[in-house]
Amino acid sequence: MSCLRLRQLNLHLPRRHLLQEISLDLHGGLCLVLTGANGAGKSTLLRIIAGLQPANRIELPDFATRRPRAAAARLRRLVTYIHQQPYAFRGEVHSNLGLALPWSIGRRERRRRIDEALHWADLTHLRDAQAIYLSGGERQRLSLARAWLRGTPYLLLDEPTASLDTNSRERTMKLLNGLLQQDRGLLIATHDLDHLAFPGAARLHLNEGHLMLGGGPRKPEGIQEVYA
């Protein structure tokens, strides 16, 4: 089982210490559900873990550096982040998926992998559709298919079921469960706890800059505590 360990994550804003001494582990095949009030810093935490925003301090025990920007570069190779409103690039759906693949892959192999991703996400019938005109649920599945193709061991999602109808929500959950079965680790920020039920999932709560177990009073030192 793969594991990504993060320690001593801190982020200072001009008039606020937004994230304080955060430590957590992401494990392949397991899901963490992150809750917290609006403005608590959930989306910011996801962006930092994805390497999209440097922290003031962050330690990766399995990667020998304490430089936040070097850590961010390392995280970008391990983590894929999906925004609350998944982005679709101009062009066909299959072209959007191709962006997740290295250009060194040959044309035939590239098409094979894209077709596999389309089938996995139930988007084959939309292969040649213009991606910017997809519905919210279709865009979510497109983003998950890009993540599936990119193949990073960890996936972070910001409110993946927000504004989805029942059918789209169920299809999204099916794909997320499929990623867990493929040993991908998930960290999901959400207010929609009623619709995010994964076997063995653990809840973390972000409050006043601190990460707590299930909204409780103590800070986790890693996922091993959550699953003890």
How would you describe what is shown here?
This protein has helices at residues 42-49, 68-78, 93-98, 107-120, 136-150, 166-181, 223-226, and strands spanning 3-13, 16-27, 31-36, 57-59, 79-82, 154-158, 185-189, 202-207, 210-213. Helix content is 32%, strand content 25%. With 228 residues, it is α/β, with parallel strands linked by helices. It has one domain (3-89, 153-226): P-loop containing nucleotide triphosphate hydrolases (Rossmann fold, 3-Layer(aba) Sandwich). Helix 6 (166-181) links the parallel strand 6 (154-158) and strand 7 (185-189). Strands 5-6-7-3-8-9 form a six-stranded mixed β-sheet, with helices on both faces. It has a three-stranded antiparallel β-sheet with strand order 2-1-4, with no helix packed on it. The longest helix is centred in the last third of the chain and has 16 residues, at 166-181. The protein starts with a strand and ends with a helix.
Helices and strands, with pairings:
Elements: E1 3-13, E2 16-27, E3 31-36, H1 42-49, E4 57-59, H2 68-78, E5 79-82, H3 93-98, H4 107-120, H5 136-150, E6 154-158, H6 166-181, E7 185-189, E8 202-207, E9 210-213, H7 223-226
Parallel strand pairs: 3-7, 3-8, 5-6, 6-7
Antiparallel strand pairs: 1-2, 1-4, 8-9
Helix pairs in contact: 4-5, 5-6
